[in-house]
Design brief:
The complex is a heterodimer of chains A (371) and B (167).
Chain A (H helix, E strand, L loop, with lengths): L8 H16 L9 H7 L1 H11 L4 H10 L4 H12 L4 E7 L6 E6 L10 E2 L47 H5 L28 H9 L3 H13 L7 E14 L8 E18 L7 E10 L3 H13 L16 H7 L2 H9 L6 H23 L1 H4 L1
Antiparallel strand pairs in A: 2-4, 4-5, 5-6
Helix pairs in contact in A: 2-4, 3-4, 3-5, 4-5, 7-9, 8-9
Chain B lengths: L8 H4 L8 H13 L2 H11 L5 E17 L6 E16 L3 E8 L3 H14 L5 H28 L2 E2 L12
Antiparallel strand pairs in B: 1-2, 2-3
Classes of the chains: A alpha+beta (371), B alpha+beta (167).
Organism (chain B): Tistlia consotensis USBA 355
Pfam families (chain B): PhnG
InterPro entries (chain B): Phosphonate_metab_PhnG
Chain lengths: 371, 167
């Protein structure tokens, strides 16, 4: 039971002042601009957008500045902002097949139509601190960039066929669930009941805490569950957003966003009727959040364990466990409220404990009488 | 869009029937993708008398973005994005609409204004030349630059065959 507390107004006001000072840090150090955050802390911005479930890089930069870099708090601020806006409707599904790809790799296929583009990746760095970054860098002069390797530059990187399409042609992999035109559930409108549909699971994972998702995905790789995936394809780049305005009745493009899309190829399904084939998991995340997209794909797959008739029992296969705890705003809200005054609750428990102890003492001091 | 606001006079005012939908889709897309500052600059340079009446003031709301499972399968909701829309009428007859990703009210208003003016066959050639084509050029150049940069990272992995077979 909560009992409201009163008082403390002045202390709270002053605490907000101290917070503002702490946010600003040493005033002798120049203040961060939103452009600096957006341009130079891009992955923090992307993560705030994912977990805030709101694609707006400038707002995410503002949220990070206000939250002093705390990604959970930043996501929280974005969710609250989102609640202040009316809902216009739904976009047409993003056509990631038409993505302007800036990074595209496959762990499964060495050669795939359209080839592999490493893009801006830290995958092949040595993770040694670069002390040169201690000082501001001069931008590289134009024209000093090593060109594409000879003979490969002419290949178009515009439209790339899906890597898994080649397995699909041989029916070596399951097809994704077809678009039957059924209503698409929206967890922001109707909280999911269990078992949740795959669309609800994906929407929940898309906004889920990256750390939680990575931990669970890792657990499924280590044996708590059964995902042995290959990365069929990771692609990053820009996709057009289209919607059908009610006034027009036809789809128009309203801009473009950056996304990371990841599909895994997992081990087999099949039965008397269906020949064995690979299965797949799917991840899609705002921005360049590829770790998030990968964890999402692994968990999308592990949460299909029941559908695919696999042995159950691991946390990463348990819908309620995964989906009900993936949202860091819900989780941190319930957890952090413990810091707020619970004085009356605690007093009640203390009274109860005293009564228990009195009863215990009485029983102990008069054992014979009790028998 | 499946969520709709109550039906308004805007919905009933049809665009000129001779208007080719694909042409309009094209300029709306270019206007939506434009950087707001560049759009403003091109608009100012036009010196077009801007007598218009707002049917729907520029307003920001949310659109739930959808993806597809496996990229091409059944749809699901990914997360929302702010979108700004505006509807207006020029010279009492041509209705312009705009839906633009983001929260820039002026961007949506200018896009709606140009959408209305571009529907006028007499004005269209000049507006395409002075606004749409320059924006398109900028956008294509940006896209090409990104593609070129990505192309420098094209990789050909090769597999090393182990020595056992050659003994």
């Amino acid at each position: 039971m909560y009992v409201a507390v009163k008082g403390g107004e002045r202390a709270i006001r002053n605490a907000h002042r101290r917070l503002a000072e702490r946010r600003r840090g040493d005033p002798a150090v120049p203040e961060l601009s939103l452009e600096q955050i957006r341009e130079q802390l891009g992955l923090a911005v992307d993560r705030a957008m994912c977990e805030g479930a709101l694609y707006d890089p400038r707002l995410a930069a503002l949220a990070l500045k206000q939250a002093r870099g705390d990604s959970v708090e930043a996501a929280f601020l974005l969710r609250v902002f989102r609640n202040t806006l009316p809902r216009f409707g739904y976009s047409e599904p993003l056509d990631t097949g038409a993505m302007a790809v800036e990074r595209r790799v496959s762990g499964a296929f060495k050669d795939l139509p359209g080839g592999q583009l490493l893009g801006a990746t830290a995958d092949y760095t040595h993770r040694l601190l670069d002390f040169a970054l201690e000082e501001p860098q001069q931008p590289a002069p134009p024209g000093e960039e090593p060109e594409a390797e000879a003979g490969s530059g002419s290949e178009a990187t515009g439209l790339l066929p899906r890597a898994l399409a080649q397995l699909g042609e041989e029916a070596l992999i399951e097809a994704p669930p077809a678009d039957e035109g059924a209503p698409v559930p929206d967890i922001t409108r109707d909280p999911p009941l269990f078992p949740a549909e795959r669309a609800q699971r994906l929407q929940t994972l898309a906004r889920g805490d990256e750390g939680f998702l990575v931990g669970l995905a890792y657990s499924s790789q280590r044996g708590y569950g059964n995902t042995h995936p290959f990365v069929g394809e990771l692609r990053q780049g820009r996709v057009a957003v289209e919607l059908v305005p009610e006034e027009l009745g036809f789809a128009v493009e309203i801009g473009e966003i950056e996304v990371s899309e990841l599909e895994t190829v997992n081990q087999f399904t099949g039965d008397a009727e269906h020949a064995p084939c690979f299965t797949r998991g799917y991840g899609l995340a705002f921005g360049r959040s590829e770790r998030k997209a990968l964890a999402m794909a692994l968990l999308d797959r592990s949460l299909r364990a029941e559908e695919l008739g696999e042995e159950l029992g691991a946390p990463a296969q348990d819908q309620e466990f995964v989906l009900e705890h993936a949202d860091n705003i819900l989780a941190t809200g319930f957890m952090e409220h413990l810091k707020l005054p619970h004085h009356v609750d605690f007093q009640a428990e203390r009274e109860l404990l005293r009564a228990l102890r009195r009863a215990w003492e009485e029983r102990r001091s008069a054992p014979e009488a009790a028998e | 869009m499946s969520d709709s606001t109550a039906s308004s006079p805007i919905a009933s005012s049809q665009a000129a029937p001779d208007l080719q939908q694909s042409l309009r889709r094209d300029w709306m897309s270019v206007l939506a993708r434009a950087e707001a500052a560049e759009l403003e600059r091109l608009w100012q340079a036009l010196d077009e008398p801007a007598g218009h009446r707002l049917l729907r003031r520029p307003e920001t709301g949310l659109v739930q973005l959808r993806g597809r499972i496996g990229g091409d399968g059944a749809p699901f909701n990914v997360g929302e994005a702010p979108v700004t829309r505006c509807s207006l009428v020029v010279e009492g007859e041509r209705v312009g609409h705009a839906y633009v990703l983001g929260r820039d009210l002026r961007h949506a208003e200018l896009a709606a204004l140009l959408d209305a003016l571009l529907q006028d066959p007499a004005r269209r050639p000049r507006l395409l030349e002075a606004v749409i084509e320059p924006l398109r050029t900028t956008q294509a150049a940006r896209r090409r630059a990104r593609r070129r940069a990505a192309e420098t990272t094209r990789v050909d992995f090769f597999t090393l065959v182990r020595g056992e077979a050659s003994k």
